Amino acid sequence: MFFKKCSLPVLLAVVFVLSGCSDDSGSGTGEAATGQLVVYTSRKEHLIKPLFDRYQAETGVNIQFVTDAAAPLLSRLQAEGENTPADILVTVDGGNLWHAAEEGVLSPVESEVLVRNVPAHLRDAGNRWFAISKRARVIVYSPERVKPGELSSYEALADERWQGRLCLRTSKKVYNQSLVATMIEADGAENTQKVVQGWVDNLATAPFANDIQAMQAVMAGQCDATVVNTYYFGRLEEAMAAKGEQLPLKIFFPNQDGRGIHVNISGAGVTTYAKHRTEAIKFIEWLSEVEAQQMLTDINQEFPVNPLSKSSAEVQAWGTFKEDDVPIEVTGERQAEAVMLMDKAGYR
Fold first, then answer.
1. Residues contributing to the annotated binding site for Fe cation
2. Which residue, 345, 331, 263, is CA-closest to 70?
3. Which CATH number fits domain 135-262+318-344: 3.40.50.1110, 3.40.190.10, 3.30.70.260, 3.40.30.10?
4. What is the pTM of this model?
5. Binding site membership: which residues?
6. Within 10 A of 154 (CB to CB), how many other CB atoms are there?
7. Could you read off the pLDDT of 2-34 as tens digits, one per residue?
8. Which of 25, 238, 288, 344 has the largest count of CB atoms under 10 Å?
């Protein structure tokens, strides 16, 4: 067997050939020949390919894949319909997975393995998608200018004491939209509106395009604290260590006295028109097992979803936390409301 990244036309041609050669006198499942999979993924190639390689080495299954942003992949699946070559969608953010399921491009899966390995709040209620890794959205601060006692929750960053001291990533990106969506679920729209307005009032500068830039602004003294996904902290920490430097920032886990820190996910689901459905389910099950979970945390500096798995040593060094166990699908259900609320507050 072999492994490669293919263009869409090549993948379509492969599927059509396989469909024409399949044996209709077999089990009657309607599946194409086994031993192969096609994956659409929004994950960067260097973060996901090692898992494909390992699975291929263990099983001999040939995995072809297409990488793109989440929105174009969803549009592609919708346009292709029953002609799609994709068996699996792998993407980030609970909201993206929720939208994919609601648009009908993902199908329910019956799997005792996935139900056992993936906590209920990190999978779709209808079992159309399952988390395979998680990341926490933490407060990152300058220990030179911020005392840990000043920090408590996302909501507290709206206090007047933070005026001119806060940096944030743009609201146009899904991670802050998902955070605000879970805040609406927990605190209500009116209270969340006040909090987001407070954040905007406390900004030291215009929102940044990404989490790395926001942390660099804290390092430069433009602001004292920001809110980022943990793996971005890990990447910046790693980049500075490679230069023999220590990252002059600290992580704080917010909302530990309440609902817990907001976590988001990367996840996977079997497409509605998967040609290799049985093999697709097996692969997602494998992703939820301890070996693959360990690879995910080592490669991506994320947290495992399987309770039996451990984070990498680098991730463990950040400490432990209580996480919000709100169903992650809330990030999709309340996304539109969150976007409108942020826009009303002037959070750009």
1. 231-232
2. 331
3. 3.40.190.10
4. 0.90
5. 231-232
6. 24
7. 334 554 444 544 443 333 333 333 333 445 556
8. 288
